[in-house]
Amino acid sequence: MKLTSAQVKQTITQLGAQVLPDEHPAVPQLNSMFGEHTFFVDESGLKVLEPTPSPGAERETSEVVSLADWSDADLTRLTAHEPEPTGVIVVFEQMKH
Q1: 35 SS3 class
Q2: Quick one: what percent of the chain has pLDDT higher than 70?
Q3: What pTM value is reported for the model?
Q4: Which residue, of 2, 15, 51, 71, has the greatest Cβ tally within 10 A?
Q5: Distance CA 80, CA 66 (A)
Q6: Helix H or strand E encompassing 27
């Protein structure tokens, strides 16, 4: 799921993760492996958000899904694994225009 800039800011606030900018050299390879997403990294590895069904809900929500774990102590190498839902939900506040 590609996020808007407002959604990225809200995700960073709620997760404490860092976003990989679209210009990052790893993003094209990640897109080819996992599809078009906004990618986040934190102390445990690589994450994306997947929308959660919320019929009738006032706020949009997404679940954090883990795609890869760090394989070294310096947090420089990732080892991909099957996507694993983490149970962590990000709530997007509606932006007023």
Answers
A1: coil
A2: 94
A3: 0.89
A4: 15
A5: 9
A6: helix 27-34
